[in-house]
Amino acid sequence: MNIDEFFKADFWEMILRSTLSFFALLIVTRLLGKKQLGQLTFFHYTTGITFGSIASEIAAQAETPFLDGLIALIWWSVLTYFMTIITIKSKKARVIVDDKPTILIQNGIILESALRKNRLHMDELAMMLREQAIFSIQDVQYALLETTGKLSVLPRPAEQPATKQDVKADVTPPTYIPTEVASDGKVIYENLVELELTEDWLMKKLKKQNVQSVEDVYFAQVQGNGSLYVSLKDKARRSSS
């Protein structure tokens, strides 16, 4: 087969298979829901790899009948979906599929059996603690290995950071969620509406900061207490200084 015949046959078949595989995988992942990569258990992680492997097999291997590969991808998705539903409804099934958190340090004491069970050694435990900004194991009250493989740590009471209640600071809930209301000289009206604010309110706030036009604003954000943070464009900043 010469190159012209190749492009007429195998090339376009590969493009078609790749395109269909891409959209099939996109639809499947959207149907199965979203979860941050750091929240994936080992089961979900390996399932994701399998999805990718099946899709790549469909796209790249001309010997694999497209329909057979697509059915395999859909059936794997159905099994994953039903397993997810079962783990949501059944705690026992959730433990079987995802396991459960393991206590590695209890009341400041390292549990060697728990480390062995999870095939961890002290260097790995120490590294995971350092990732939590804890460099001394004696500062740890509890440490749990989550099903995602991450370490959750409860420091000893003396090492825990003080809260606002501890120092008797103001704990009044914020009036607003910090929200962008102007960007690159333009008002973001939908955000103002969501905050139940008006353009007049914005202009009054700007004028209080000696900003006469929103066109001079590079970025403006409503703060939790109702104040307005404003950063001017370089040109406007130079002219005002």
What is this entry, summarized?
The chain has 241 residues and is α+β, with helices and mostly antiparallel strands. It has helices at 3-32, 42-60, 66-89, 91-98, 112-117, 122-130, 189-194, 199-208, 234-240, and strands at 102-106, 109-110, 140-145, 151-155, 179-183, 186-187, 217-222, 228-232. Strand 3 and strand 4 (151-155) form a beta hairpin.
- Sheet of most strands: 4 strands, antiparallel
**Radius of gyration in whole Å, from Cα?**
28 Å
Low-confidence stretches: none
Count of beta strands:
8
Strand residues, percent: 5-15%
Helix percentage: 40-55%
Name the overall outline: flat
- Mean residue pLDDT: 80
**Tally of separate helices:** 9
Order of helices and strands: HHHHEEHHEEEEHHEEH
- Order of neighbouring strands in the sheet with most strands: 2-1-3-4
Give the CA-CA distance, first to last residue.
73 Å
**Which class of secondary structure composition applies to the elements?**
alpha+beta
